[in-house]
Amino acid sequence: MTVIWEKAFDICEISQTEQKDGFTSYIIDVKVSHCKWHVSRRYKQFVELHEKMVKEYGVDKNLLPPKKIFGNRSESFICERKKALEHYLQSLIQLFTILPEPLAIFLDFQKYEVRAITAALSETFFSTGEEMLQRGVSYEFTPTQLHAISERLKLGDPSYFKNPKQDIAHLVEFVTQLKHLIIIGSSECLEQSNIIPNELSFDLSLFKSAVTLEVYNCNLAKNLTSVDILRANLKTLIVHKTLENIADILLCGILHWCPITDPLHTWPFWNSITFLNFSHNRITKIHTSIKLLSSVKHIDLSHNEIQVIEHMETLSELSVLNLSHNKIQEVDSLHTRLGNIHSLNLSSNKIKSLQGFSKLFSVSELLLEYNLISSLPEISHISKLPCLETLSLQHNPVTLCVDYRPQVLLLFGSLAPELTLDGLKATEKEIDTVSILQALKQARGENSSSLVNQNLSQGESISNSYNHHQQIQKYQEQNSPG
Predict the structure, then answer these.
(1) Span 136-160, pLDDT tens digits
(2) How far apart are CA 440 and CA 115, in angstroms?
(3) Which of 336, 340, 332 is nearest to 361 (CA)?
(4) Rg of the Cα atoms in the chain
(5) What span, in angstroms and rounded, lies between the C-alpha atoms of 399 and 374?
(6) Beta bridge partners of 221
(7) Which residues of 302-331 are buried (b: 16+ CB within 10 A; e: fewer)?
(8) For 103-112, what is each residue's pLDDT tens digit?
(9) Are 340 and 375 in contact (CB under 8 A)?
(10) In what order do the strands lie in the sheet with 23-32?
(11) How, if at all, do strands 35-42 and 139-141 pair?
């Protein structure tokens, strides 16, 4: 998108006409450098434009071809008028170095051209910018608008139109104070143009006050050229339907970074980010650049294509991690891959073994729904985790085992009353059952896991263990001191 005017006939021509419900529309093709778009206008809209141009800019009132009452639907007349209206537009364009506002709006420049886009934004922020900033609301920009802002600042002239409300200063004042920025991209052509928003580059150097950045459906590998201004203050980063590589944003603008050889004090840290949500992308690997999130507490990488948990062992502040809906199978020695994690969501993956969870001593919430855990002995690996309060195993094969809930609670022993299993606390009946089985364990001199294995091998239902209650009491009476 450029602002250098070419010859009038290269900028504008009427390529065709369309008949619609009793009137004729003239399709105007507009070209500015490599950008093209078309506009549909009726003759009465030409008249409205012409009245403004005559009144405000002294254009010859006879320049527009006159209205014809009779025969205005004939093919020959429409063809003749098309040529006359094209000549009218080209004549107007020849009169001005920079298009006057009414003509620019008539040709939809405010949708597609750098100066017109920024002028429209400036007028918006002149009217409502201060109120939005005081309310602390977020504002949505498109890559087209951000590209226009980036390009507009490279131009030397102070304004596009003579309207003081459209001065670029109003736009700059707003974006430099905006705290909550949303960017919504598109891979489709912008309205009636050949402009694809996600093919346009932009930087965020003006958004120095931003503490929240949300990005949806963009192509950051092509769009984003610099985020340096955001590294110090950004607290929340949300990116959806955009990323294949985490580094596209975390290392944006960094030409070289090696975590092995570069001194720690030179790393381009994101020092303030505490909440990061990169869910619903196409991420296949957790890139080493995630180490740059030195203060992050909550990470959501759900709904991606990640296979391995890696590069997160140095995130000392991380307490909540969501890796659900990925392709994770191998989870060996998780305590060496994660720090003091409190909540871990690995639902909807391909996990078969829980052995790798056995030393996650800080975890209090473990969500493992929709995996491939098939045996109760696997649960014994997590039964001694001292802080575990919430465990979800729904929709795993193991839940089909006979007396699944009491069997699991038995493995947790004295921790069972405090455990929320699959969304439910243990009932009084379940606690009683566990107590009976624990007594059986003591009587037989067995541990919980071996008793569970024995019950499974014999096909014994725990609900039937109530029948042994008298036997247990008798055994205890016979072996009690005195």
Answers:
(1) 999 999 999 999 999 988 876 655 5
(2) 82
(3) 340
(4) 34
(5) 8
(6) none
(7) bbbebbebebbeebeebbbbbbbbbebeeb
(8) 989 999 999 9
(9) no
(10) 12-20, 23-32, 35-42
(11) unpaired
